[in-house]
Amino acid sequence: MNYHTRKWIKPEDLNPNHTLFGGRLLQWIDEEAALYAIVQLETPRCVTKYISEINFVSSAKQGDIIEIGIEATDFGNTSITLACEVRNMMTQQTIITIDKIIFVGIDNEGKPTKHGKTKIEYISDRLKEKH
To answer: Secondary structure of 65-97 in the HEC alphabet?
Structure first.
């Protein structure tokens, strides 16, 4: 699992129990997963199709730093399937896991479009190919 994003838990991120609001965390996850899908599929148009069961394992509190990990697990003709884990950066304790987040690449009319990808690609490798 690659952890690309860190978030610092601030007062505006808390629920009435003074722990991280689950909705805020899901917003961050959806955004991070969308960015990952956009980069992998090389298209600026990706939409969230499906999110599997969300397992809240533990919580985070104000001042904690969390890391969002995303990993590609499958490539369909028009989609990419991702897994996600969020952990506390300092303690490494898991906060949330999501086994499956599916994004679909779409065209200008909002219809699924084939992407031709079959494996994870890194930007640095794409840059090497162009030189």
So the answer is: EEEEEEEEEEECCCEEEEEEEEEECCCCCEEEE
